[in-house]
User: What shape does this take?
Amino acid sequence: MAGKPAAEPPFQIVRYADVDRVGCGIVAANRLFDFKEILGCEDWSDSLELLRDWDLAAPRLANFAGRTAPEAGRDLASIRLLAPIAIPGEIFCAGANYIDHVAEMNQAMNHVATPTFKELGEKPWHFIKSSRSAVIGPGDPIRIPKYCAELDWEIELAVIIGRSGRDITRSDALDYVAGYAVANDLSLRPAVHRDAISIGSPFHYDFLSAKSFDGACPFGPAITPASAIADPHALRMKLWVNGALMQDSSTAQMMFGIDEQIEMLSSRLTLHPGDVILTGTPAGVGVARGLSLKPGDEVRMWIERIGEMTNPVV
Assistant: This one.
């Protein structure tokens, strides 16, 4: 199995590949149960459809997981996990949102430390990744694009929206979260700059090339329901390259919390079930060490209570 759901939550939502089909279901008590078999509802046979009905579906899934017999279900070793949503809605990515990462980048670039966005009274800053082209799942290969070879890693806590909302307040924001997953905001660092155009021009920056190429968002291995996470701002997170620990931090390092990010995004547009927010990355990225991913490398990510996933680089 290419990805490992976390063992502690009562259940997690997965997509999986079997011998002759792609299915969706839950993992409970380390066993797999297909949606069609346990819910008897064709409308919930896909994870995105389930998220669109999350307020109704979540209690039924929790109730089923609580009654699961150890001998029931299927062995996880017999299936391959896929990205838990084949094509998410929008993918919003927070930039410069971890205190330790901002300090790391200032040092690496010989920049004098300046007030953070938050200290300046600013709001969270986001860009958008392509969902159809960028998302890959556990075990899927990360392909280095032909136009730029300097590929960097960024482990991030992914927030999956489970309820539509506009102008959501911070106090209500977490009520709109269905669950959490692990993501890698892969970045082609040099591609973000167009060197022939002045850095003072808005056309100097190219986030499409740097952040939204094919396979730019490894995502998985499962959706852990929000109800299983007491505090999403207190989760350990680690990333290894070829077994060497590169990122070792906590979501406690977030500058703007998940509630603040949802408040900001929903003040600009409506959030929908299946939308995903990548909430920023901590210190330990490759560019700060003069490193980048190479063919033959292996990237492994883990977030406490969420799960672990690995991707080879080709």
